[in-house]
Specification:
Blueprint (H helix, E strand, L loop, with lengths): L2 E3 H14 L2 H9 L3 H9 L6 E3 H15 L5 H17 L2 H6 L2 H10 L1 H4 L4 E7 L4 E7 L6 H17 L4 E8 L8 E7 L1
Antiparallel strand pairs: 1-2, 3-4, 4-6, 5-6
Helix pairs in contact: 1-4, 1-5, 2-4, 4-5, 5-9
This protein binds zinc ion (ZN).
């Protein structure tokens, strides 16, 4: 089963601390399996590997307690995480890079966040569009798909691109061979 790096979990826990209350945090933890609760109480390590289900269940619990239980917060969480990680750890990208360089660097980060699959991209500067494909990820999940799409969307915005369309073209959850997202900008 797929695993996610602690760096994907830590911004979500920070989101609770920054935007939520202690009571909400307890309510979120109470929705998780005992072993996941224990991991979080013990302290998530940046470099640790955790079950993808922990990332998915934590995101869903936050959406339920702090949002409307309609998955809208999944997108906001991913955008928050993207900004946290890219604005701090990978700030260099934005100082030195063109959007194409940043997209390629972000795609290369995949194996730092997940131990399964790869993220391929096709950046078309002339047509002002980029497609991403998640290939061979061994645990298709709608929540994870929303997360990846929102993460890339925020990354493109942080590059200074003004997006006019963001689309999930196909998804393994709907029996496609892989997940694919398409973004167009002005
Ligand atoms: Zn998908």
């Amino acid at each position: 089963m797929a695993k996610a790096k602690g760096t994907t979990l830590i911004p979500r826990l920070k989101y609770i601390d920054v935007k939520g209350t202690p009571a909400q945090k307890e309510a979120i933890l109470a929705l998780l399996r005992p072993e996941f609760q224990a991991e979080i109480r013990k302290g998530i390590l940046q470099a640790g590997w955790y079950p993808l289900d922990l990332l998915v269940d934590l995101s869903l619990a936050i959406d339920k307690v702090m949002g409307k239980n309609d998955l809208a917060l999944i997108r906001e969480l991913a955008r928050f995480a993207s900004e946290e990680v890219l604005n701090t750890v990978y700030k260099m990208f934005f100082r030195v890079g063109s959007p194409e360089f940043i997209v390629s660097s972000s795609a290369n980060l995949w194996t730092r966040f997940y131990n399964s699959g790869t993220l391929k991209f096709d950046f078309n500067k002339a047509e002002k569009k980029v497609t991403f494909q998640v290939i061979d990820f061994d645990q298709p999940s709608h929540v994870h798909c929303l997360t990846i799409m929102a993460w890339m969307e925020k990354t493109l915005e942080l590059c200074g691109l003004k997006l006019r369309a963001a689309q999930c073209v196909q998804c393994r959850e709907k029996q496609a061979a892989h997940c694919e997202y398409l973004f167009r900008w002005e």
